[in-house]
Amino acid sequence: MNAYSALLRRELTLALRSGGGAGLGLAFFLIVIMLIPFGVGPETPTLGLIAPGVLWVAALLACLLSLDRLFQQDAEDGTLDILALSPVPMEGLVMVKTLGHWLTTGVPLVIAAPVLGLTLNLAGPAYPWLVAALLVGTPALSALGAIGAALTVGVRRGGLLLSILVLPLYIPTLIFGAQVVSLAAKGLDPGIAMMLLTGTSLFAVAVSPFASAAALRVHLS
Amino acid sequence: MSFWEFANPVRFNRLATRTLPWLAGATALCLGIGLIWGFFFTPDDYQQGSTVKIIYIHVPSAMMAINAWFMMFATSLVWLIRRHHVSALAARAAAPIGAVMTLIALFTGAIWGQPMWGTYWEWDPRLTSFMVLFIFYLGYIALWEAIEDPDKAADLTAVLCMVGSVFAALSRWAVQFWNQGLHQGASLSLDKEENVADVFYFPLLVCLAGFVLLFVTLVVLRTRTEIRARRAMALMQREGEHSA
Hints:
The complex is a heterodimer of chains A (221) and B (244). By secondary structure, chain A is an all-alpha fold. Chain A has one domain. Chain A contains 9 helices and no strands. The radius of gyration of chain A is 18 Å and the shape is elongated. Chain A starts with a helix and ends with a helix. The mean pLDDT of chain A is 91. Chain B is mostly helical and 244 residues long. Chain B has a single domain (18-243), classed as Four Helix Bundle (Hemerythrin (Met), subunit A) (Up-down Bundle). Helix content of chain B is 82%, strand content 0%. Chain B has helices at 9-40, 55-82, 85-117, 125-146, 150-183, 192-195, 198-243. Chain A binds chain B through residues 144, 147, 151-152, 154-155, 158, 161, 164-165, 167-169, 171-172, 175-176, 179, 183, 193, 196, 200, 203, 207, 211, 214-215, 218-219, 221, and chain B through 132, 135-136, 138-139, 142-143, 146-147, 152, 155-156, 159-160, 162-164, 166-168, 170-171, 173-175, 177-178, 181. Chain B: Its main location: membrane. Chain B: This is Heme exporter protein C. Chain B: Residues 7-183 form the Cytochrome c assembly protein domain. Chain B: The chain crosses the membrane at residues 20-42, 54-81, 93-113, 125-144, 156-179, 199-221. Chain B: It is found in: Cell inner membrane; Membrane.
């Protein structure tokens, strides 16, 4: 347990120190949401209509942006080899790194989303569901992203490849997540969509450590 | 004589060279008969006119688009478990064919959709899942191209294929949920198998056989090419070691 908490502490420290890029995802989220009215027009009914989807797509892109930091730097400076020798299994390592990514990227998005929803004129009953859906869905974004990051860790300038691999994996999460919010915004019951989102998310979190660890082992061999 | 004998690249290539002319001939025969029969010797549909004939390309290519991914899944699994290089190379060989089949299905569908539905594109569950499938193919091909070490590339793409299969299936159901959420079950998609009358059905069967044969021919041909390319690479490496 000690090794795990040390690892998590290291991840968080690295992300939060200057140059760690923890704030970047949040800033990106903010800018994308700010750009939407410029592209779509300032009519509040239209903005309110597209707000659930836009918030989710922006959160997804913000998450994607910081994924290449997940393993790349550690692989380049040799830290990953040392970590592979530690008593923590590779799957555990991936889990801790994913958790670190979620805490520094996903959680800030969840907190910022309602405020940005206000600027997009999101309907009143949707706010608690927006927070709940993002809280449940963003771990899946980090977990699936870890698979992509692990697959492309040996590829130089693999950022674009990473997004091509990861974005299609995000489709179920995005569909269910955006459905939760837009159903709630229309005053309908989002319960089923929420359950499906939770299921998808739990599945992604369960599968990711094994797939990512398999990919990392290939890279290290 | 077991099936696994052809895991030996030399045996596989020998078999490929021997069977390719027959496979290619059978493909040409089936596609020729099926398409000519279908295009010229079937009546126009009373509702759809002659546009119905695009079915002879659309349905077989859509079927192969999905089955090519299944084949990649199976061969990737064989590579992960039994480490036969031919298997991994066959998966690599099948991917671009599957991607092109997906594109053909999408394009013929769009051409058919314009006069029938009044639109080239509709975010219908079927259409959307095919676009998603196409993106999965692109990612898979891109990952093969990006990694230099061939064994590592085979391993990583196999992992991607496993994960991708699960999430492609999940997307299929998610997309259905999503569209019903918008359209209340009003779908433009026809369930084609049920609507097809016998006059259209038999040439369609021949075309399906033709597309299956075409796929097998192309996969065998491309796998042979991949094996030869790997052999050439190995020879060049050995040469390099000698001169060094």
